[in-house]
Specification:
- The protein is an alpha+beta fold.
- It has ten helices and eleven strands.
- The strands form three sheets. The protein has a six-stranded antiparallel β-sheet.
- The protein is elongated.
- The model is unreliable at 1-5, 252-258 and 261-270 (pLDDT under 50).
Length: 365
Amino acid sequence: MVLALDKQNEAGKALAAAQDLTEPWKARNDQWVADRRLLMMSYRKRILPFELILSNDIAVQHTYAVAILGGKSPLFRLPISLQEQAERDKMNRSERLLYGIWREADRNYRAQGHGPMLHEFLAFAALGAICAFPRVDMVDGHPRFYATLYDPINCYPEFGEGGLLRFARVYSTTYADAYSLARSQGWDADQIKKSERVDVVNLWEKQEDKKAASIWNTVVIGGVALKPRARHEEFAEIPIVMRPMNGLPTQPFLQPFTDNPTATGSSDSRSGAADWGRPVFWMNRELVPALDRNLTYSAEISRRTAFGKYVYISEGGMQVMSPTEFEATMVLNLKPDEDFRSVAPPSGPRERETVVADLQNKRNS
């Protein structure tokens, strides 16, 4: 690793580059935030005493997808055809090595307080994208295998014909976590100012020229470049894996037709960010809230009509008993000029039942 000669304004340059990478993905993040609110059943809050129905269809679809895909541990198989027995033995040992690497990477990942790596990998994939930082570190002369999963909503890539050109991970964490991160990497953690939240920016850049490509990394914690821009000669590519799932193609030629059907030109290659990666439940993004809304209407009507309403007619129009006394009364004694009758609740429109049934059918199809 070779440090850059010019260390001045490292933090400012990295933050500016991260901001440049963040801007094109705002539509993606807005959509992903809305998707996660649907998943967590928190996109609306109940206002008492009114009823609110939030169905669990989105959560069930996501959980079901993760359960199906992650029902078994991953299998590692190397193709065996007409090899000699000695070659087959080597391939079998290679397969066992891959299983060992997976188990160690999973153990190291869970040691950081995460759940099973496969489960969380699939949970992110079912939400629309995955992002991972696989690496090998030497500890006491022995290799240690890691595969850290990043939340894709905090990650901002820039792709080119040659793959990943730039990548920024921008997130906020606690002071204790930021200090632990800096200390584990051998950086001067005492430069981090104590505060409730600390912003972290991890920037990777790929510089290409006619001869070769070089990989550079800068880490800014709390506004301080604890890792000044440094070249990593051990990498030929940015060591980050980020892939969309279930999204629409984002080729440059598609955007003009989505924005303007009569356009024939081409523009920003990072357009269509909102559909770059879509969750497994993307087709029900609008159906489920519409169904919840109509079910809420029905529940509110039921609440309002659950307790009967009555009309009491008297000569003076005065109330002779409280609602509590009325509920406890078995026999009503009325004068000849008094009258007591129940008020029939209004009937709900039949169209509402049709709408609810239609939405349920579309959701289940």
